[in-house]
Design goal:
The protein is an alpha/beta fold. It is built from 14 helices and 16 strands. A hairpin with a 4-residue loop joins strand 1 and strand 2.
Length: 423
């Protein structure tokens, strides 16, 4: 039966020095023709237990392998059997996006039959325009950073992080013309990429940090954060300043965001845990619910259009970027997918002082940035595909467009609670 394989897998198989194993798993298309046709039932196919052990509840083996493939090839992983992912579950899996426009042939941004913009701006927007004499509008200039994709490279939550890793990320940000949030000591060292780096300075920007080299800086939220903003403004009035605050389901988050906006921060970075939840692991509220709550609150306070809300945590797939924006985000920060592009296994040995199984710290920066660019390029094509299917040509229109999405928990409540509730 091996000779009847239409893909000639058994003829092409070999030993790979890259994976130190048989290449048959990479070549096999899982049609099971050889398994079903073997008269003695000697050929069988099972799931590799090492693959099943990868990752966690958020970064599952499927998510990891899909991101690996996109980083390797730069292509969207398409299955002839159609979408095989979940239609319900925790987090972003419970969101169903409206794809009704997919039936229209003009809704196609990937092949150039329709222009779809994925550009977004990071920065405050003026609440109104002021007219001068002669009915001319005065130009109000506020610090802002324009990026061609609604994706910012966020701080990495773990990993065997070396100078090479940070250089790969900064270089990829430069190639893609986006922004990478990087620890300030690494940012200073990578001065050739300063236009595409937002140094993370914690609670206080070091006096020796040349802030005028950068377009954006991120600080950590704390009680005296207003003083930190004032010092940064004194050093460079044109600097866009982002403040990073922890996301939670506490209603006080809205009041704090309004306060930070009134202080003059250009970007509010609303960051959940790496799992996408407000606490470590799958505990508490998910990012999508927290962002929806904040977005609705900003609308009620009539300041939503003035604020740039950058959200991060649990963004594992391209579709999560679109879904987070539909919930109310202006842009999204990604972290673990950058490590996945570098072939991370999400084993977290590094957090316990163990060795990295793939020695990420030793990667050549040129190899690293190419894989990150491949990954983001594949994500970009998926952005275009989803936006085209929803009939949205402008990424900025995605923010809070909740009429284009259904939430499983809402449908379940509206459909079944009345049927099974008593009284």
């Amino acid at each position: 039966m091996k000779t009847l394989c239409i893909y000639k897998v058994y003829e092409k198989r070999s030993f790979s020095t890259d994976i130190f194993g048989d290449t048959i798993d990479e070549l096999c298309k899982s049609c099971f023709r050889c398994v079903q046709g073997c008269p003695k039932r000697l050929i069988h196919k099972t799931i590799n237990p090492e693959w099943e052990a990868l990752g966690d509840d958020v970064y599952t083996p499927e998510v990891i392998s899909i991101n690996w493939e996109q980083a390797e090839t730069g292509k969207i992983p398409v299955s002839g059997a159609g979408y095989g992912g979940p239609f319900s579950g925790a987090g972003f899996d419970s969101m169903w996006t409206d794809m009704s426009e997919i039936v229209r042939p003009t809704r196609d941004g990937i092949h150039g039959r329709e222009y779809i913009s994925t550009l977004v701006d990071l920065g405050r927007k003026p609440p109104y325009l002021v007219s001068q004499e002669g009915d001319l509008l005065s130009s109000v200039t506020l610090p802002s950073v324009r990026i061609p994709l609604p994706v910012v490279f966020d701080l990495l939550p773990f990993g065997d992080l070396s100078a090479n890793v940070w250089e790969a990320i900064a270089s990829a940000a430069g190639k893609l013309q986006t922004v990478a949030v990087i620890p300030w000591d690494q940012a200073v060292r990578l001065s050739q990429y300063s236009e595409y780096i937002a140094p993370f300075v914690g609670r206080e920007a070091p006096e020796g940090l040349p802030v005028n080299r950068f377009r954006m800086v991120e600080v950590e939220d704390h009680q005296s954060v207003a003083a930190s903003l004032e010092k940064l403004r004194e050093r460079d009035p044109n600097l866009a300043v982002s403040v990073r605050m922890s996301a939670s389901s506490n209603p006080s988050d809205l009041a704090r965001i309004l306060e930070l906006h009134s202080l003059g921060f250009d970007v509010i970075h609303y960051a959940a845990q790496e799992s996408g939840y407000e606490s470590n692991g799958s505990q508490g509220s998910h990012l999508k619910d927290m962002v929806r709550q904040v977005h609705d609150g900003l609308l009620k306070n009539a300041v939503r259009d003035e604020i740039t809300l950058l959200v991060s945590g649990g963004i594992a797939m391209a579709e999560h970027v679109i879904k987070a924006m539909l919930c109310g985000a202006n842009a999204v920060g990604v972290d673990v997918p950058l490590l996945l592009a570098l072939e991370c296994r999400v084993c977290r040995n590094c957090l316990e002082g163990g060795d990295c199984p793939v020695s990420i710290a030793t990667i050549p920066p040129s190899w690293g940035w190419r894989r990150i660019v491949n990954l983001v390029g594949a994500w970009h094509n998926q952005f275009l595909e989803m936006m085209g299917a929803m009939g949205i040509r402008e990424a900025r229109r995605l923010t809070g467009e909740q009429g284009r999405v259904m939430f499983f928990e809402d449908l379940e409540r509206d459909t079944f609670v009345k049927l099974f509730s008593r009284g």
